[in-house]
Design goal:
mainly alpha, Cytochrome Bc1 Complex, Chain D, domain 2, two-stranded antiparallel ribbon
Length: about 300
């Protein structure tokens, strides 16, 4: 089967999660939801990455607002399946969830705490955390930044979604309808998976947006991290997992619909031109990548 060989299915567990315990994940979940860890105590990680009910891990805003209403620079991606990505943030300034875990708390455009020390002090002053740290780290229940990073990243790695497409590649060959199958074949035929590669369908490589129709030209992407002129307009290739639930699209959130995003990309490094009718079929396939429990 082409899809199984060229894309594959999403594993049940994120890489490097084998040592993550239920109690670590529970502590990470508590930290992820704690509004007291933002500067004026009104915002948590889950504010921009809603997960409850049928929410698909992002707020569907063009760019999210921080705790004082400050506007972020880039679109918030879904947190679902982030454990499979080795590039964190659009500009790749982190390459692990452990390294990334505390950034949102001290980012002036997000939760705006003045320092990591302030974050640590707020958690240490909250007695409800004592049992969570004791359960998560029985040999060393110290409330420290290392254990905070481990817990948040463990929780984030636990957010694995399963889709209709995964059922298909695991052997339920009748689950996709004709339009979805045709869309899958077009996806592979025109080479979308050259960039949106692997079972995550993206998330682990960079690419340069060369057409001015595809980006906000004031955002220089990876260059802002590396300082290398060759990295101008280079961004992380986003995963297509849950893409039908996570509009708007692109790093600047400038595209409202999935169909329009494909229309913009059809002149970008594809094997051939794709027609409007084929775009409709591609949309049908991409919808099969959505978590079966989510609708946003």
């Amino acid at each position: 089967m082409k899809a199984k060989n060229q894309i594959g299915g999403l594993p049940d567990q994120s890489p490097n999660s084998e040592n993550d315990t239920i109690t670590m994940i529970q502590l990470g979940n508590k930290l992820f939801r704690d509004i007291n860890l933002s500067s004026n105590q009104i915002q948590a990680c889950i504010t921009c990455h809603p997960l409850d009910g049928r929410s698909a891990g992002m707020d569907r805003q063009q760019t999210s607002r921080g705790t004082f209403g400050q506007l972020g620079r880039r679109n918030t991606p879904t947190i679902l399946n982030i454990g499979f990505s080795n590039i964190i943030f659009w500009d790749g300034r982190r390459n692990s969830l452990y390294d990334q875990a505390i950034d949102p708390f001290v980012n002036p455009l997000e939760m705006s705490l003045p320092s990591e020390s302030e974050l640590l002090q707020r958690i240490q002053n909250d007695t409800s955390y004592l049992s969570f740290f004791s359960n998560a780290f029985p040999s060393d229940p110290t409330i420290n930044l290392h254990n905070i990073r481990l817990s948040i990243s463990a929780f984030e790695k636990s957010l694995v979604s399963k889709s209709k497409y995964d059922d298909f590649v695991m052997g339920n060959l009748q689950i996709l309808n004709r339009q979805e199958l045709e869309g899958l074949n077009i996806f592979l035929d025109v080479g979308c998976n050259k960039c949106h590669s692997g079972s995550l369908l993206g998330g682990n490589t960079f690419s340069k947006l060369e057409s001015t129709s595809l980006y906000n030209s004031t955002d220089l992407g990876k260059f802002e991290v590396s300082g290398d002129p060759n990295d101008q307009y280079i961004f992380k290739v986003p995963s297509l997992r849950n893409v039908a639930l996570t509009q708007p699209y692109f790093h600047d959130g400038s595209v409202r619909t999935l169909k329009e995003s494909i229309e913009r990309m059809r002149e970008y490094k594809l094997n051939r031109y794709i027609s409007d009718s084929e775009i409709d079929l591609l949309v049908s396939f991409l919808k099969t990548l959505s978590d079966k429990t989510k609708s946003n």
